[in-house]
Design goal:
- By secondary structure, the protein is an alpha+beta fold.
- It has one domain.
- It has six helices and eight strands; from the N terminus they run ααβααβαββββαββ.
- The chain has a six-stranded antiparallel beta sheet, with helices on both faces. It has a two-stranded antiparallel sheet with strand order 7-8.
- The longest helix is centred in the N-terminal third of the chain and has 22 residues, at 2-23.
- The protein is globular.
């Protein structure tokens, strides 16, 4: 009788936990932020950081209601996080922090899709990493370091690297064409 009661209580508690988890809102997985990003953030003179969950992305995409590709991509995205850091002088950030970010993604099992260096020989770089879960892309991280700014963007959810082109120019994500960051001259006029 004691065993029956213990089994009954165990089944009851498991079903209560399952029921509570089914009713809990789906929250995107905790964002992975490399320590190198924290180092870059520390010395920035200007910081802009925000995160949009799926609901906010859907709402914001309605502002561009004619863009069907954007709405299709947003359907699979659970969140976008943008970090923009500006520095008072040219290459006034620690290039070793950029290398630390690359190392952390490599050791975390992320696959690097793009690694472009600055043409002027400076420490500027453009990097894109992806993480797989169950043979599908679950996260994309982008790091763009230029002479006086660093942009770090993460996108969580079911998205292909090609779909990034549809997100570029929206939600603080820089435009990327043919693997090259497209400068946004109007961004600095604000």
């Amino acid at each position: 009788m004691m065993i029956f009661r213990a089994v009954f209580l165990f089944i009851l508690s498991v079903s209560a936990i399952d029921s509570a988890m089914a009713q809990a809102p789906q929250v995107p997985p905790r964002e992975f932020t490399p320590q190198g990003i924290q180092s870059l953030r520390q010395f920035a003179s200007s910081k802009t950081e925000f995160t949009l969950d799926h609901g906010m992305l859907v709402f914001a995409s309605k502002l561009d209601s004619e863009n069907e590709d954007l709405r299709r991509v947003i359907a699979g995205v659970s969140g976008v996080s943008v970090h923009r850091y500006r520095y008072p002088g040219t290459y006034n950030y620690d290039p070793e922090a950029i290398n630390e970010v690359k190392s952390e993604y490599h050791s975390g099992g992320w696959k690097q899709l793009m690694n472009n260096r600055a043409k002027d020989g400076g420490p500027g770089t453009s990097n894109v990493w992806i993480r797989f879960q169950n043979n599908a892309i679950s996260d994309i991280a982008m790091l763009f370091a230029r002479s006086n700014e660093v942009d770090y963007v993460t996108v969580s959810g079911s998205i292909s690297p090609m779909d990034l082109s549809h997100l570029g120019g929206h939600f603080g994500i820089p435009k990327i064409e043919g693997g090259v960051l497209v400068p946004d001259d109007h961004r600095h006029d604000r």
